[in-house]
Write a structure and sequence with these properties.
InterPro entries: Cupin_DUF985, RmlC-like_jellyroll, RmlC_Cupin_sf, YML079W-like. This protein is mostly beta strands. Helix content is 13%, strand content 42%. The strands form three sheets. It has a six-stranded antiparallel sheet, covered by helices on one side.
Length: 166
């Protein structure tokens, strides 16, 4: 484990609070503009640093684009995904391959997802690349009530990761 704490990375990378939880900073955005399925235009890709502390939650949300997650450091990160068919799965983002962690995770577009750090008193630093590029107008945060109506079978993860109210 890296001896630097979360505040070191927040300060040195210039991270700011993210509406879903944790901290982020956009690092790259494509100069290439494409037409999307939704009849609008987006950058080909965007990329951010994202840092989540073990006391933080990346609340359940949805994007209209695929998102690729890349492990950079700290503790491993659990990415919780409810896909378009309503199936739930957890992906472990990290480098402990023997324990099922992987250094990259893909969250398919239109999935509802969030993340959490399992290990106490730690943090996870990752990179996220969205394609077509991220725009806040494509970002949906959900409340527990909204998700429990549609996915009551996933109550435990919804109560853990969804907002109580907006």
């Amino acid at each position: 484990m890296n001896e630097k704490d979360a505040q070191f990375y927040i300060s040195h990378l210039g991270l700011e609070p993210h509406p879903e939880g944790g901290f982020y900073k956009q690092t790259f955005a494509s100069d290439v503009i494409i037409d999307t399925e939704q009849d609008n235009q987006r950058k080909l890709y965007t990329s951010i640093y994202f840092l989540l502390g073990s006391e933080d939650i990346s609340h359940l949300h949805r994007l209209k684009s695929d998102e690729l997650w890349y492990y950079h450091g700290g503790s491993s990160l659990t990415v919780h995904i409810i896909d378009e068919s309503g199936e739930y799965k957890e992906m472990q983002l990290g480098l402990n391959l023997e324990k099922g962690e992987v250094p990259q995770v893909r969250v398919p577009k239109n999935s509802i997802f969030g993340s959490s750090v399992k290990e106490e008193n730690t943090f996870s630093l990752v990179g996220c690349m969205v394609s077509p590029g991220f725009e806040f107008e494509d970002f949906e945060l959900f409340t527990q009530e909204e998700l429990l109506k549609k996915y009551p079978q996933h109550e435990a993860v919804i109560r853990k990761l969804a907002l109580e109210k907006k």
